[in-house]
Write a structure and sequence with these properties.
GO cellular component, one term: chloroplast envelope
Mean pLDDT: 75
InterPro entries: At4g37920-like
Oligomer: single chain
Distance between the termini: 44 Å
Low-confidence stretches: 1-17, 280-288, 314-322, 347-364
Number of helices: 16
Radius of gyration: 27 Å
Order of helices and strands: HEEHHHHHHHHHHHHHHH
Number of domains: 3
Structural class: mainly alpha
Strand order of the largest sheet: 1-2
């Protein structure tokens, strides 16, 4: 009872709030029902999405819902309940805005079916797992088989375009790294080659793709039975120079990796991993000390560290040597790699991650 605003206060919101708007309910009562549903009956945000995806219906109540939340916040005397209402309104607004973006993207795709590749290239970051879950909810919202099938086929076309786009980007990244590596190998002397690596690092262009190439090249040279010792010596010096340069520039992904591997509790570690991939809305104030990256980029650095560890355990100093030789740390690193691959790099919704009722929904 303490959560409900007085009738006098409620009337200030809107003249419509105390008049019947649907099935004998006033707008105030409907908004209170939404609050009860979101806060107590279905507190999981995935359940909220199933409601908010019905945009035309939700838009009738949306402005009144937020006003009603504010009224109840203003009159609430219990500080814990007040805080819960504040958090609820903020979380609903965040998901509401996300779904609005998803629907805007969906409308653009549906109205321009022949331009899907161009849309993906322009708005790749908007094609998230939540966008495809939103498509699943839309499928369930339609009764006609033709409409449901059209949405499913649209989702499949998007996934195909995303896969092609990502592969292209990855290839471009490798091509750029290969060009730099070729330039290093074509140096007039070993000192010149090492200076080029240091120059690349100073220009902050010593990225994970180039380091991976250098790692793999030294691994191939070291294990080769036909390559001359002089060539192996050159590759070793290039490899060690790259390592030393990395220690100087300290890429954010390496800092993040050290931070994650020092977290002993697995759940806390995976929560920190998720936070690193979700820096929030670009308008939000961000923690300047926090480290953010993308799943693909962190995955490349993890592979690089594992390569370096297996390549030369006694000389690995991408991270602290003694820590890296600890089997526990290596196991954490391998588990992180598998988690990034399974949870963040797959271009489809994993059916095991959804509720049982969702498993009958078409997956994209």
């Amino acid at each position: 009872p303490r959560c409900v605003a007085s009738p006098t206060t409620a009337k200030v919101i809107d003249n419509q709030t105390d008049s019947e708007v649907a099935m004998g309910y006033t707008m105030t009562q409907i908004c209170d029902r939404f609050i009860e549903f979101f806060m107590h009956e279905k507190p999981e945000t995935k359940d909220w999405r199933k409601i908010l995806v019905f945009r035309e219906e939700w838009r009738r109540y949306r402005p009144h819902f937020y006003k009603r939340c504010q009224v109840r916040i203003d009159v609430e005397t219990d500080t814990s309940v007040k805080q819960k209402l504040i958090v609820l309104a903020r979380k609903v607004k965040k998901i509401d805005d996300e779904i609005e973006t998803h629907m805007e993207l969906f409308t653009e795709l549906r109205e321009n079916p022949t331009d899907i590749n161009a849309i993906v290239a322009r708005r790749r970051k908007d094609f998230t797992g939540d966008f495809f879950r939103n498509l699943n909810f839309l499928v369930n919202a339609y009764n006609g088989l033709d409409e449901r099938d059209a949405i499913a086929r649209l989702g499949a076309k998007c996934l195909s375009a995303i896969h092609a786009y990502d592969c292209t980007l990855q290839q471009l990244d490798i091509d750029s790294a290969q060009s730099k590596f070729d330039d290093i190998l074509n140096s007039s002397s070993l000192d010149d080659a090492c200076d080029k690596i240091k120059g690349i690092a100073k220009a902050k262009e010593l990225d994970s793709s180039l380091v991976l190439l250098i790692n793999r090249a030294w691994a191939a040279a070291k294990d080769s039975k036909t390559m001359k010792n002089k060539v192996k010596d050159i590759m070793y010096h290039i490899y060690t120079t790259a390592k030393e340069s990395l220690k100087i520039i300290s890429p954010p992904e390496m800092k993040l990796l050290k931070y994650l591997l020092n977290i002993e509790d697995p759940e806390e570690r995976f929560a920190a991993l998720a936070s690193a991939f979700s820096p929030g809305d670009e308008h939000e104030v961000k923690d300047e000390d926090a480290l953010y990256t993308t799943p693909n980029e962190l995955h490349k650095w993890i592979k690089m560290v594992l390569d370096s560890y297996h390549l030369n355990k006694e000389e690995t100093d991408f991270m602290d040597a003694r820590r890296m030789s600890d089997p526990v740390i290596i196991q954490r690193l391998i588990l992180l790699k598998e988690t990034v691959e399974e949870e963040y790099m797959k271009q489809y919704i994993n059916p095991e991650d959804q509720e049982s009722e969702d498993r009958e929904e078409p997956e994209f």
